[in-house]
């Protein structure tokens, strides 16, 4: 294996959480998530030469992953009827891990109903990007990023509430 | 629950580590991006066009062409090859372009959108440019085989205004049909990819 390829795969492995987060936010079934993950890695490899180390690899990777997810459309799997799973029940005990899992399950279920750009805004917000940084990544003004993010968060909140979870 | 709870759960989720990184780059292939589908579709058509060009070049060998028409036929054929080479080169540049995924999302979407639009417009213009070549080359073949009949028809049309009108209308209708078929084909084959990119672009517009 060439050293460039080795270096690339090592960087991907150490930042794989980014790809998983993006794929789970944009696609709802494991098959579609796997397709998107492959597409992201392919696009990252194709653009790897343009990574100039002016920013961290994870920042660059986030940008490529998001831009890929924005224009990724699921395969037409007509024969498979995907049924929406009901949200998990409230954990009976006060197990913090179970509570976190439940919160994430509600989040991922609700986030599927957002528009593509809204998903990108929420994703970057959860990654602690400032409004300015979100605007810079998406190519919109800081003010517009703030307004759009606020609307997306409000929408997400309503969706989670509709699923019967307190927000 | 609030957004801080989601952030906390999101960053400590073990699921995030469950990505299967491919063992080598060779295993990767692009599948679902509209622009990639567009590129693949156009690449497929390019092979059909190349095959058609080869067949056109062999027509005088298959069907007898009067020696007097051979030079005009192949002069047109070479010009047709030149136009096709230019078009194929442009298509190759589009096929090899990176897709601008490293730009800001808005710039990347605009680039993809205009790149895809440009390719489709090029595809259409290539088809229209080939029309006159096809017409003249077809006329040469007919002249070679049914020269007398064509001359009679010409004389008849010159003498009879109604026949001239019918012939002109047929020509215009044929050209218009080529236009309609090309528009329909590009819209049904590639239009959806443009609409997909446009829908995301509309979301991001300020």
Automatic annotation (TrEMBL), chain A:
<dbReference type="InterPro" id="IPR013249">
    <property type="entry name" value="RNA_pol_sigma70_r4_t2"/>
</dbReference>
<keyword id="KW-0731">Sigma factor</keyword>
<keyword id="KW-0804">Transcription</keyword>
<feature type="domain" description="RNA polymerase sigma factor 70 region 4 type 2">
    <location>
        <begin position="107"/>
        <end position="156"/>
    </location>
</feature>
<dbReference type="InterPro" id="IPR039425">
    <property type="entry name" value="RNA_pol_sigma-70-like"/>
</dbReference>
<comment type="similarity">
    <text>Belongs to the sigma-70 factor family. ECF subfamily.</text>
</comment>
<dbReference type="GO" id="GO:0016987">
    <property type="term" value="F:sigma factor activity"/>
</dbReference>
<dbReference type="Pfam" id="PF04542">
    <property type="entry name" value="Sigma70_r2"/>
</dbReference>
<dbReference type="InterPro" id="IPR013325">
    <property type="entry name" value="RNA_pol_sigma_r2"/>
</dbReference>
<dbReference type="InterPro" id="IPR036388">
    <property type="entry name" value="WH-like_DNA-bd_sf"/>
</dbReference>
<dbReference type="InterPro" id="IPR013324">
    <property type="entry name" value="RNA_pol_sigma_r3/r4-like"/>
</dbReference>
<feature type="domain" description="RNA polymerase sigma-70 region 2">
    <location>
        <begin position="11"/>
        <end position="78"/>
    </location>
</feature>
<dbReference type="GO" id="GO:0006352">
    <property type="term" value="P:DNA-templated transcription initiation"/>
</dbReference>
<dbReference type="InterPro" id="IPR007627">
    <property type="entry name" value="RNA_pol_sigma70_r2"/>
</dbReference>
<keyword id="KW-0805">Transcription regulation</keyword>
<dbReference type="InterPro" id="IPR014284">
    <property type="entry name" value="RNA_pol_sigma-70_dom"/>
</dbReference>
<protein>
    <submittedName>
        <fullName>RNA polymerase sigma-70 factor, ECF subfamily</fullName>
    </submittedName>
</protein>
<dbReference type="GO" id="GO:0003677">
    <property type="term" value="F:DNA binding"/>
</dbReference>
<dbReference type="Pfam" id="PF08281">
    <property type="entry name" value="Sigma70_r4_2"/>
</dbReference>
TrEMBL record, chain B:
<feature type="transmembrane region" description="Helical">
    <location>
        <begin position="46"/>
        <end position="65"/>
    </location>
</feature>
<protein>
    <submittedName>
        <fullName>Uncharacterized protein</fullName>
    </submittedName>
</protein>
<feature type="transmembrane region" description="Helical">
    <location>
        <begin position="126"/>
        <end position="143"/>
    </location>
</feature>
<feature type="transmembrane region" description="Helical">
    <location>
        <begin position="163"/>
        <end position="185"/>
    </location>
</feature>
<keyword id="KW-0812">Transmembrane</keyword>
<feature type="transmembrane region" description="Helical">
    <location>
        <begin position="71"/>
        <end position="89"/>
    </location>
</feature>
<keyword id="KW-1133">Transmembrane helix</keyword>
<keyword id="KW-0472">Membrane</keyword>
